[in-house]
Amino acid sequence: MDIRKADPYEADSHAVREREERSRSCGRDASLSVHIASELMRSYDKHDKCGLVWIPRVVAYRCRTCGISPCMSICRECFHRGDHSTHDFNMFLSQAGGACDCGDNSVMKEDG
Ligand SMILES: [Zn+2]
Ligand SMILES: [Zn+2]
User: Fold this and answer.
1) Nearest bound ligand to the CA of residue 82
2) Span 24-46, pLDDT tens digits
3) R_g of the chain computed on alpha carbons
4) Looking at the predicted structure, is the pLDDT value of residue 91 above 90?
5) Are 80 and 39 in contact (CB under 8 A)?
6) 64: how many CB neighbours lie within 10 A of its CB?
7) What predicted TM-score, i.e. pTM, was given to this entire model?
8) Domain extents in the chain
9) How far is the CA of 106 from the centre of ligand 1 (A)?
């Protein structure tokens, strides 16, 4: 009798605890990344940097004429604004997502 009573109770409380933990951590992760993304966007807005953050599988550009670092990447808008069409550029599909380096002197020339 006692065992029959205790077993479902144990299982239930354990399952509930697991469910709670999973949903809590999921919710935290999601809101955290959204929070970071919006914080990034907002902090970059104050500078003249474009600072666009893009999601994976978005087309971005890399300009070897303007870029100091090979890992620089700029968004389509900055590519057209900076008129890199005559430069040594290449268009690539960003696999992991990234951020626009436009205006970042450490990775590209100022006039880029
Ligand atoms: Zn940009
Ligand atoms: Zn360029």
Assistant:
1) 2
2) 444 444 444 555 555 555 554 44
3) 24
4) yes
5) no
6) 13
7) 0.56
8) 1-46, 53-99
9) 15
